[in-house]
Amino acid sequence: xxxxxxxxxxxxxxxxxxxxxRVVMDGGGAPRLRLxxxxxxxxxxxxxxxxxxxAAAEAAPIAIAPEPTAPGAAPVAAEGAEAxxxxxxxSTPTSGAAYWTDFRGPRRxxxxxxxxxxxxxxxxxxxxxWKQPAGGGYASFVVARGRAFTIEQRGSREVVAAYEVRTxxxxxxxAWPAEFRESMGGDGPRATPTWSDGRLYALGAMGELRALDExxxxxxWRTNILTDSGARNLDWxxxxxxxxxxxxxxxxxxxxxxSVAAYDRATGRRAWSVLGDQxxxxxxxxxxxxxxxxxxxxxxxRVMGLGPSDGQLLWEYPFPTYNxxxxxxxxxxxxxxxxxxxxxxxxxxxxxISGSASGLFVSEVWRTNRMKNRFSGxxxxxxxxxxxxxxxxxxxxxxxxxxxxxxxxxxxxxVLLAGxxxxxxxxxxxxxxxxxxxxxxxxxxxxxxxxxxxxNVPALAGGYLLVRNLAEMAAVDLRVVK
Length: 482
Known about the structure:
Largest sheet: 5 strands, antiparallel
Structural class: mainly beta
CATH superfamily of one domain: Quinoprotein alcohol dehydrogenase-like superfamily
Low-confidence stretches: 12-19, 64-78, 85-94
Number of helices: 3
């Protein structure tokens, strides 16, 4: 018995030292054994792949039709930018529409409205258009003009990278020294970048905020929002995506100098900062409720509406959770209602905002524990809210909060809405297609697309679905007409 136990210990030690066997936590906090590699080895493997990719592109360059540069535009010095595609990288953006420009889409609601998607995936599922290694972290992609942008952990650096959507070819990177480590959730940057008017606004897990030119990744300006606000980092790092509001970039640093802050998007100078909340992990939104344009912000203990020009508090609703973990996005329902949900003892509530610009008031319409969004925000179709109640897909009547159905185990994955279907990326990396119907749970298709823990939100633009996790990324072509 002692010899057997010793053998198990020895085998475990060998697997730990030489093969990267580690205990990792799933979304519910349950431990799992997985083989993993160090961030340094992962970065080396990515670099070998990108070198081979560049060599192949130079041998057979892909024709890209550039869009015209704005009159009088001048490049900024390339601080930290690396042209990953060498001479074949165009100095101007590639053609294509700018659609999925924000976290969870242009309205931050997970609803893809650009064009119908392919729903006949066949019995074996769909083959990825391309698939390749990626750096660590939980950010999603944003997509504009034929390019996809994300932020990754590569060794001891946070790296913003631009990719060509059709091929996965890396076009440029911009990196800085930063290595956020967290044993429960995992390492790396969390916040999805934001694209607007030819610039990318990227936030690292330790507070580094950079405005980058979309064409080559040159730095227009940078600051550290934690240092600037005098805030301590959150346990799970800076996770809220920057929000473009008129001529400002709104971020959520927390801290005594202002838990909500706005920076001039042209210069990076701080325009205003307000409140002193402990911040949370959900991203701010620009919405109109009861006819009043406002910022919708979720902190560790409350949901609130703020004036978009100065951060003035317009209304607030207490919404505390265990350890201040508010991570799921609020969801607009009609012209004056907001659905909020969280795990960690909170559940869900429907809020109604009434009044006018001279004064707004909030009331609770209903509350339920039948929808507990932990990481993934819900989506809305035809008066029904669809989302993950912990790890099981569920549907609620938006008017009453009544549970319509619950079914299908997807782990702590992510949900998007595309027409009358839900696209679910499971925690284990499967891609599932589910009908968005209040009648019953009906899964149409399912196939594996990624391997390993997958918490990253998918992105969908021009019919191309982009997915990634801690180790790899892929694109799936869902266009109906090709």
